[in-house]
Design goal:
Rossmann fold, seven-stranded parallel β-sheet, alpha/beta
């Protein structure tokens, strides 16, 4: 492999890629030559990310879908295939996290998080991995969380759904691997995103978090890019069913 990280000729769907970690991943894949389907729930930011990807030389399309709606999951998969002809990689980044006391969680709160974080994973894999298997090459990368192993009491449902998603990865890796499709989980730790901005703005809370991280700092979305490119590329072709933690050592 003269260019083991080169993704030219590959098309990747990155869910939840209008901002935060998803945006960084989509642009990181585009920088390695991949064409990218940018996904968001609303129109905010999608065209800007697509423009940045195109400036890197990639083809990019913006697709909107509410992953809490099963019909929208299927429409997203079909839209991505229609835009690129084939999808070679699926990065499952979109998620829903509701911070609350678990006793206050309503059925609607629970259902929404399970639908976005777990059900959409299964539906998108059902729609997109059979063509990958038929072609003998594919990549599925779930974006999990340190909460799979260090659950936050304020995010019980989210943490449980991410642990379940990691279990799906381990299960599918055995089933899809023989067909040339690898399935892996990239689990970030504390990352400075819009979702975490409010809690990390509290100096005492941020200091408490950073004191638990061996590298001594909160991560940036760009810190997740290298691991994702590895798992998406030929260089990572022998990695299957793994959870790669990008957390500064917090989970040790």
């Amino acid at each position: 492999m003269s260019q083991p990280f080169n993704l030219r000729g590959r098309a990747m769907l990155v869910t939840g890629s209008t901002r935060g970690i998803g945006r960084a991943l989509a642009l990181g894949l585009a920088a390695q030559g991949a064409d990218v389907a940018i996904h968001g729930r609303r129109g905010d930011g999608g065209e800007e990310v697509a423009a940045e990807a195109r400036a890197l030389g990639a083809r990019a399309e913006v697709l909107m879908a509410d992953l809490g709606d099963p019909d929208a999951c299927l429409a997203l998969a079909q839209g991505a295939i229609a835009a690129f002809g084939a999808i070679d990689g699926l990065v499952l980044n979109a998620s829903m996290e509701i911070r609350q006391d678990w006793m206050a969680a309503t059925p609607a709160d629970i259902d929404l998080q399970l639908a976005v974080n777990l059900r959409s994973t299964l539906l998108l894999c059902q729609a997109l991995t059979p063509p990958m298997m038929a072609r003998g090459w594919g990549r599925v990368i779930s974006i999990g969380s340190i909460q799979e192993v260090r659950p936050n009491p304020a995010c019980l449902v989210y943490a449980a759904s991410k642990a379940a998603q990691a279990n799906v990865v381990a299960n599918l890796a055995r089933q899809l691997g023989p067909h040339g499709v690898t399935v892996n989980n990239l689990a970030p730790g504390a990352i400075a995103t819009d979702r975490n901005a409010a809690v990390l703005a509290d100096p005492a809370y941020r200091r408490k978090v950073e004191d638990q991280i061996p590298v001594g700092r909160v991560g940036d979305p760009i810190d997740c890019v290298g691991a994702c490119v590895l798992l998406a590329s030929e260089a990572g072709g022998y990695i299957n069913g793994a959870t790669l933690r990008v957390d500064g050592g917090w989970s040790l």
